[in-house]
Amino acid sequence: MVFEPVSxxxxxxxxxxxxxxxxxxxxxxxxxxxxxxxxxxNDFAYQEETRARRxxxxxxxxxxxxxxxxxxxxxxxxxxxxxxxGIPIPQYQLLAEHLKPNPDFARQWVxxxxxxxxxxxxxxxxxxxxxCLWDTKLTNYNxxxxxxxxxxxxxxxxxxxxEGLRIGFYYSLMDWHHPDGAVCKTSPAARKRFVAYTFxxxxxxxxxxxxxxxxxxxxxxxxxxxxxxxxxxxxxxxxLQPEIIVNNRNGLPGDFSTPEHKIQAAHRAWESCQTMNLxxxxxxxxxxxxxxxxxxNDLASCAQQGGNFLLNIGPEPDGTVPPQQVxxxxxxxxxxxxxxxxxYGTQGGASISFGNYDNFTRQGNTLYIHVYFWPAHTPAxxxxxxxxxxxxxxxGGLNAKVLSARLLKTGRKVEFTQNEFSLRLTGLPxxxxxxxVTVVACQCDRxxxxxxxxxxxxxxxxxxxxxx
Length: 468
Ligand code: GLC
Description:
Low-confidence stretches: 1-42
Number of helices: 15
CATH architecture of the largest domain: Alpha-Beta Barrel
Number of domains: 2
CATH class of the largest domain: Alpha Beta
Largest sheet: 7 strands, parallel
Radius of gyration: 25 Å
Shape: elongated
Number of strands: 14
CATH superfamily of the largest domain: Glycosidases
Mean pLDDT: 90
Bound molecules: alpha-D-glucopyranose
């Protein structure tokens, strides 16, 4: 395919065409008619009233795949290369001719997500670089008119549906390529065009690909929520996709928060997004990958506090997922196949505090103790007799009485003792029975909460100052 550089002038033309076209489509008019009336009466009432229902599947899911793929993948130095390395637009856009994903790229991604036990997939349909992975009519800077010659979003959507995965579209509001993307900050005329362009692109994404489950906005620079008309934007989104959930990065609170590179619980739905090495987009030289054990701990930490975990892959130029990312996800998936009940559908609030070698999730009256570092043969056993069994997992400050305990890996019953201070799992093998993490499920007499701070208040009644 011959690449025609997109001139400033043709861009204005495309953007203008988009603004016009966006007023028309029949499909949109039909959907508007069918939309919930509350949405058209009030920007937020519809969103508030339906939030719990719309979020229900997502709160069960707990674990999703983030995919960063675009022209930046060809450079292999993360997705910010265009700006952080100061690459001029006429140069950068030459890459568009060379993006040639494998015929099977999307199936590889979603099958990997499936093997990993991830329940939804979120793809960068347009990152900050401005290149659109779908068949947009509003710019020729897109995957159909440039190198791929294919609608990559459509292939992704079809592949994800075939695997029964929920579908998310990441969409960057910031756009380094569009001629109005920056000047819209100061020029009202440019803003008008750019907002219309943005609405037009979102409308295409949410009209032409069937049911979409998540809209994952990113980076509202350089406009304020008012200038983006973010309320009207969300209203359009819900009109087109009444069951969708939206995040908080168009400047409005949305349905869920998005702590990045960190786990930070909120008093609302939240999802922590994380990379396996340092970059979101492919970074060839970075081989510093987090281990499956650390990532499973992150996943459990999110579940412990009632949040989701969106774990990223940064595919190579042809769409291949770097082998280290594949093997990590497969390890996580194998673990989830046995231990899934300790993650999926769990409710937050299992613990107010972390253990030294373990973590906690809960579902109803069941407490799941995730043991990362197997505690066995402490030298202190020669002095403290409760450490004498070969391995003892102890949990201080559990509020509930344990009725029975079992290893998720084998189903084997685990012997234990419990007093008001501590639950001690004593009937454990010397070596960790599961890898990278062993989970013990404890059936309790009430919804369990672990809070070792409770112990402090109890010390005086526990023979403080007594000999022995
Ligand atoms: C940030 C970065 C972006 C990345 C995103 C993922 O906003 O700018 O590169 O896609 O976070 O959360």
